[in-house]
Task: structure prediction
Amino acid sequence: MDSGNVTLTNGNLLVNSGHVDIDNIKIDGQTISTVTGDEAINITPHGTGSVVISKVDINAGTIDGATIATSDITVGSGKTLDVSAGTLTLADDQISGDKVSGGTIGTVTITELGGHLSLGDNNITNVGDLNADSISVDDAAVGLDIQFGGNTTLNKISLTDNLADALNITEGSNSYIKFTTTNSSEQIVFGKNSTFAGTTIADLGTVTTADINGGTFDGITSLTAGNNLDIGAYDFRAATLTADGLTSGRVVFAGTNGVLSDDSDLTFSGDTLTATKYSATTSYTVGSTVITDDSIVMTPSTDDTITIAGATNGALGITTVDNAANAAHITATADGDITLNTKNIGNSGNDAKIAFQYNDADRVRVRSGTTAGAPYLEVLGNVDITGSIQGGTTASPSAGVTNIRGSGFIHSGSARMRQS
Result:
């Protein structure tokens, strides 16, 4: 037929061989195509009807305005679902995190994670503010390295104001370093021992309480103590030591517990030491002279001594010793009189005397006599007289010699004597 319509009211149209062309649509076996040209094939239902294809294999082309509501879309192995030119819209919580692998996630807001987030040792970069309850090491063999890589003044740890414990570095319940930001009481508290070996603290500021058990202090220009200083059994060395409580010119001595003090009775000026009193419990040595409580022993040459000693009742002894000879002489030279005076007046049978001895034996005695006021000169042995024996005084020479008694001979070149 060249023109007109073909109406088939009932039955089938069978084409066993060849094809059927309807306008530009060609039906050939299982293939529907256009007859010529690059033309589209439109299947459009009437009204609200639908085109239902129970089985479909679409190998190319575009699906526009379609809704797939009751079936799944499966992308074959090695194939790609490409929505790069459009938008893939999903409902909230529709993609599970373990279904995402590879690629890059751009702008995204994660409100809450249902479990741990592992980045597989990859980095998190360009983080503005990180809020976390704790940061712990992932692998102890690798460790934890917190790096402050900003420019100067831009690396900080900011603490909250007015807290008694704003930051605390601890091990268990042990505090090592605690930062206090309480207003007007800000401080850093070290809870454990600290070592600064080989380092320099440029300005320590003010230290209110310290217990320093070792080390060296160098270059101190000023040290002010608020209480006593005790350096124990150690030396304190200084080129000049000034004690404010001492008086110039006085000799310093140690008192109770080693306290240094002075006294006006003991002074020193130039090469002169002045002491109001001197007391020695054992002896006092000046050169070769030893002064003890009751004696003065001088040793002018080896083994030769001069001893001035006191004894009971105020007795006085002067003894000279020449160890090699008999040259330990006593010479009395006076620019005036030499007076020997005994206070024993010889009463009640007590006969006082001034005796001159030779070889421990009396040779001449001046005796008081047993009666007060009757002294006499007693010579034991011979007497050689050159000159005169005259009694009395310069004012009364006629008083004469009362008695001369001798047990030996009296030799005189010219003597006048009378019998007693």
About this structure: The mean pLDDT is 82. The chain has no helices and 21 strands. The longest strand covers residues 174-180. The CA atoms of residues 174 and 191 lie 8 Å apart.
